[in-house]
């Protein structure tokens, strides 16, 4: 692993030595979908459709939880937080991407790239933390049901949210600062339609060992620990479910976790794949990170509200009730007209 990283830096250093100028680029150039430039307009329409679905789906979930008193429980409050994070995550990448695909707006200012980079990684850390909180919520609900309301009070939920935000800020603020210290006088062409730390640091004309080590630390201390806590929570849940008296009871208990398990898989599989390809990939599949990054950032905001809407009976019933009331209101309005 270290040999691969050193080889990458050595290649960058050799290329930089050819360019002796000390002037660093003030902008980055974003990349769309290589080889599919002729279809960028149609790809943009498809991505815009996904963005609209993500906006409508997550806003519907947030509105349903906010307006329905029976959903003011820890499980649904965490889901509301997840939907809000998904809204922000898709909104900080999609408009810029659509501008690139529709209008060929490829340039992004260096500082604007750093801001986008921070928010992408920060919101990803928040989403990972919320998924841990939801796993702990399911563990307490199934393994300690009598203590559920006393442990997960509104005050404790607010504290959990603040801890997740504080951790995200503390861990992710150094990322754009580590990029800002580097010189970029070899190339400013990014391989994505948005700014990622792994992508930008590979363009630098300096030793990026600190960036590599800190990026690995972030992965292990945030995503690694979070995935470990989620795994431990579900091991304890499975152990508790197996010990339940009847198969029907155990199936019902574990059924409350299916939506969360889907959300975890939707988030972690593309994220781990993207990280592995960025760090250990080679030129034989250099387009793979582009597609994986888009899946990682765009698919969870689209699928999460759909999964929870289908798998969670209370959410589904509330949405149906909202649509029914809206239909009745329209009918009454038409009658008066």
Automatic annotation (TrEMBL):
Coiled-coil residues: none
Keyword list, A-Z: Cell membrane, G-protein coupled receptor, Membrane, Olfaction, Receptor, Sensory transduction, Transducer, Transmembrane, Transmembrane helix
Residue ranges crossing the lipid bilayer per the database entry: 12-33, 39-64, 76-98, 118-136, 157-179, 212-237, 258-278, 290-310
Membrane association type: Multi-pass membrane protein
GO-annotated molecular function: G protein-coupled receptor activity; olfactory receptor activity
Any single GO CC term annotated in Swiss-Prot or TrEMBL for this entry: plasma membrane
Single GO BP term: cellular response to lipid
Keyword match Transcription: no
Chief location bin: membrane
SMART domains xref list: 7TM_GPCR_Srsx
Organism domain of life: Eukaryota
Domain G-protein coupled receptors family 1 profile residues, every copy: 57-308
Localisation per UniProt entry: Cell membrane; Membrane
Protein family membership: Belongs to the G-protein coupled receptor 1 family.
Name listed for the protein in its UniProt record: Olfactory receptor
Organism of this sequence: Geotrypetes seraphini (Gaboon caecilian)
GN (gene name): LOC117362315
